[in-house]
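Dear Dr. V.,

Thank you for agreeing to look over these. As mentioned in my earlier message, I'm a first-year student in the group and I'm still getting used to reading structure tokens, so any feedback on how I've presented them would be very welcome. I ran two proteins. I've put each sequence directly above its structure. The first is here:
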Amino acid sequence: MLRKFRDGIKGRAGKVLLAIIIVPFVLFGAESLLTGGGGPAAVLEVNGQEVDGAQLGQELLMLRNQTAASMGENLDYAALSEEKLRPQAIDRLIEAALVEQAFDILALSTPERMIQQSIVQTPDFQVDGKFSNQQMSRVLADNGFNLNTLKQRLAEEMRIGQLRSAIAQTSFVAQANTDLLIKILNEKRRADLVEIGPEQVQPAEPGTAEIEQFYAEHQTDFVTRRSVDVEYLLIDQQDLLEPVSDDDVRAEFDLQIAQFEASERRRVAHILLEVGEEQSEQAAIEQAQALSARIEAGERFADLAKQYSADSVSAEDGGDLGFTARDGTFP
């Protein structure tokens, strides 16, 4: 899921798409993408369970990222519009709600340990074959995720997979099939055997006309495979190699060096302050200003990140998100 989006943002077209996603964040904030600027009003109801605008907005954003990643460099902006993606996002939310309700009826659940194991085994979160908190934080941040959203999505996918598997492995036998099987098992047949010895068979030599008639009726049985004679010339690549001098290599390097440039990378750390029911946007702004003042007064950024950041993964590393390109997700 994350690999598709990460591969999709490479190249010029990917950067254009990334700019389209980032501009609303800069101008209106993340909430405008998820709720349209208002509170989380219900947009649909599934058996009495409400689905609000925030959930629909999040599903639309995730579906848009996945669709764009599958297009590669050839982006179809019409296919990425809300008008095109909204029906698919609603179907996903309905399916997830129905599966969740079915799990509640069946008293089933997805163990937290299974979700954690899936996260640890995700290749995108590994460095040299081992799970890395820093790598996970970087990948989640690049794709607009947080740890809670990732766990929720994994739990939904696991529940859907378990329910589908249970249904697929369930079987029943129709009465008609049972009756047919009983008839076959109880079926009886009578056979008569007549033995004919060689002395009872009169040998006969076929005539020319009979041979020709048999050949005409079975011509395909006497067709041989077509064969051809082939002549070829073997050219060894080693025989065509010509030595290249150091001066020629240096001249070609000087000619091509203008095509390459190193991009600046910066190390990023953050303190995530969430805005929601427990804390208003104004309260979060005031807290951020207070933390900024404490940092300027000499307190360590890492200590404050461990104490106040809502990002539990990066908080353990003092808010550190690792290195990122200057034109990447972070400034």
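The second protein is here, in the same arrangement:
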Amino acid sequence: MIREAPVKAVVVGAGPVGAIHARALAAHDSVELVAVCGRTAAKTEALAARHGARPHLSIHGMLERELPDLVCVATGNRDHPGPVMAALEAGADVFVEKPMAWRLDEARAMVEAARSKGAALGVNFNHRFSDPYLRALDYADGEGLGTLAYAAMKFAGDLYKELDDPYCQLIETQGHSFDLLRLFCGDIAEVSAFLADPRGIGVYTSAAINMRFESGAVGALLGSWDGSYATSSSQVLEVAGTEGRIVVEDVIDSVRIFEAGRGDYREWRPGIFDAQGRDFWRTIDRHLHAFIDALLEGRKPPVTAEDGLRALEATYAAIRSFEQGQPITPGGA
């Protein structure tokens, strides 16, 4: 389906990430931000007023009154399915934060609902949209790597405040890691996971996951909430092939490109005056604008619902591998 400008858009969720969605929508020339829906009246009214939009406290009431073309869902991660399914049922396209759902059955229902409605459903894996990752992908797509050999990912940050699920570190955070590994290496054929609870709090805050890709390449992921986002190299992706290698550090910080047979490498970093390039949160604006442009041009979203589902399936394959003590193929129950 091709949307015509102006695209009537609404935001569900009046917290910090919802505010970024609202900012991005308001800045797009082909979008009219008409409403914000939240749980708290004061926060919802304040965010709506900032953009000249109408505040709502009921998702169903907002959908009935505003008849939006696009619904951006930035609620708490466990609360995504309700607004997403309601928006799809109302005929809207949807852009939802990651993880698209907490449970696999919820995510699969969302994918099927979007298919049955012919709607676009995008998932916000915004790391893809940093300049270092975009430059790395250009090099990889240009076959500079040769035949893929391996990928190594580390994503290790601070302990979250909400520790309400033994596997929340994997579900909350490492979807980004699985998405980036799939982006550069293709679908994951098999995972084998080892998890650790070093604090003895009933939450596995560190994980080491080995994997095999359908391409034949191998990979490893070290994911943790026992590190720190305040230090360098909290996130590093290295992808190597027979002809070259790329290393991306800290999403927005840098990309290094190594070519086989050369003793030097190329490095790119955002310039000193490139404020947006150094702003991690602007990757959300960039992704949302790309999603809107795809709607206007009748293209599939840059990150599809299927991409979101595959990342969640890989996450749950890692969980099952740990529980069963054996390698698991993603995509099962």
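From my reading of the second output: The first strand starts at residue 7 and ends at 12. The chain has a mean pLDDT of 97. Does that match how you would interpret it?

Kind regards,
E.
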